[in-house]
Every structure is written in C-alpha cells, then in structure tokens.
Amino acid sequence: MAQDAAYFENRYNPRLAVPDYAQAFERWARRSEQARQEMDSYQDVPYGPHAMEKLDIFRAEGLSKGLLMFIHGGYWRALDKKDHSFVARELVKRGITVALINYALCPTVRVEDIVLQTLQAAAWLYRNGSNFGAPLGKLYVAGHSAGGHLTAITLAAQWPKFAADLPKKVVQGAPSISGVFDVSAIIDVPSVNVDVRLDAAQVSYLSPAFMPPATDAPLYIAVGGDEQEGFQEQHQLIAKKWRKVIAGSVPCPGDNHFTVLDRFADPESALFKTVLKLVEGSSETG
C-alpha cells in the first residue's frame, strides 16, 4: 500500500516531532558563542576555493591526543559550524583538537557536491592538522544527522583514488549520531527534498548503507531513544550492513533528534565517553 507524504514527514521531519526545536538551535548558538571566547582557535580557515569551504580549528589544551573533525547537520541545507562550537569545549579540555567544517548548502549545490567538500576537508586536515598541534595520522570524524551521513561517507571513501598522496586509511574511526544511511528515504519527504533534490539514480553512490567500509576503522553509532521511527530504522540498517566495523551502539535514552547532540558535548554521557575512548585508544568507558 502506497504511503502519503504525511507518513514520510512523520518519520523523517524532526521539526514535526519536536515542536520546540528552535530552542535547541538557540541553546547551541548561545553555548557556542561562549565556547569560542574560551578556546584557542583559528576561525574560517579555508580548505578549498568555495566561499563555504571553511573550517574552525580549536587547539587541544596540553599535548593533543588526536584531531576530531565534526560535521554539522541540518539536512544538507541548513545550520553552520558557528552554531556547533559548543561540541568542542569539553573535548579540547581533555586534549583533543577539534575542527568544525562548513560546506555549501542545498539548494545552491547538490548532496554529491557536499560529499566531495567533506572529503576535501578531511584530506586537508589529514595533511595539515599537525600545523595546529594535532598528531599526524590520528584523524577522526564525527557528525550529527546529515553530518552523520557524511561521517559514514568518509569511512567508505577510496582515499587513494580521491588523491594520490593519501593512504587507504585517512580516518581512524568515527561516531555517527542520528545519521541517514539510505538516502532513498528522503526522496519521499517533500519538505526536505524540495531543497536537496535527491532522486533514485543517486541512492547507490550517496548511501553508506550500500557501500562497503573501505577499511577496518571502527564506527560507533548513536540515536536518541525518543527519535522518530525513520531514524531508528536507519540506525538498525547501518548496524546490520556495516556490522564488521560497528564498534558499538551508544544508548541515548530519552533524547530526541536535537537533545542527542547535547549528549555529545556532555562529559558525563556515554556518548562523550565513547569519543574519548575512540581517540585515546583506551578500554576505559568511565
């Protein structure tokens, strides 16, 4: 039986499920402004020629243990790295260098363009992270929502084909939060696809669920316990398709699509401790 547009909106439009979502955006922006004042940073560093190909780098306090590239969400069409500086604050305190990237937004570009920009940012950080105090070869990627999708893409990338100077394993591991791993689901969400313009021909090369992971780099996955059914199913799908590299499914009980990102920045949360475990290479979970 064919489903109508409302069915897909209810499964994949978080703004319907969380009426006070604007408060989350305001909270993130407020916390981010304060965080930028407290951290040693380099703002709007270009990683490519496009006006949106910029990143902010927050230096680790003390000796850096690794470099984490964070990719913001917004369904490939909204938000900005400046709204997410807050995710770096507690990681920086614990010796992790954090880079937040921007990318061009739909509808001015297509999702495949954003994928290429994301890979360009990761390649740039792999080559240049040591100039900002990060250890060479210890690049990790994390992202939320659309950023979770792009995070998985970096683990599926054939890096030597992308650039001859890159090794097979550019990214050492990643946590993906509330990601979309089969983009075919978004084709039927009118309020989103009006801007991102996904079609059936793009599904195979834009969906991590249908790509093999390129290396043994571990992927941690997280989804809020109160998120919509669509995001729950995406979580289960990547857990099945990428089971050989799934290092863990991080519980986030009681969280919706927006509050789950607050857990990423909360040093007492399982999600935050997972990031530390990944970067530090420690078995301690807190």
Topology, pairings included?
Layout: H1 5-12, H2 14-17, H3 21-38, E1 41-46, E2 54-58, E3 66-71, H4 89-93, E4 96-101, H5 111-128, E5 139-144, H6 146-156, H7 159-162, E6 174-177, H8 184-187, H9 190-196, H10 203-206, E7 219-224, H11 229-241, E8 246-252, H12 259-264, H13 270-280
Parallel strand pairs: 3-4, 3-5, 5-6, 6-7, 7-8
Antiparallel strand pairs: 1-2, 2-4
How would you describe this structure in keywords?
eight-stranded mixed beta sheet, Rossmann fold, 286 residues
Low-confidence stretches: 282-286
Q: Tell me the number of structural domains.
A: 1
Q: Tally of extended strands?
A: 8
Q: What is the mean predicted local confidence, pLDDT?
A: 96
Corresponding CATH superfamily? Alpha/Beta hydrolase fold, catalytic domain
Structure description:
- This protein has 13 helices and 8 strands.
- The N and C termini lie far apart (48 Å).
- It has a single domain, classed as Rossmann fold (3-Layer(aba) Sandwich), CATH 3.40.50.
- 40% of the residues lie in helices and 16% in strands.
- The chain has 286 residues and is an alpha/beta fold.
- The radius of gyration is 17 Å and the shape is globular.
What is this entry, summarized?
With 286 residues, this protein is of the alpha/beta class.
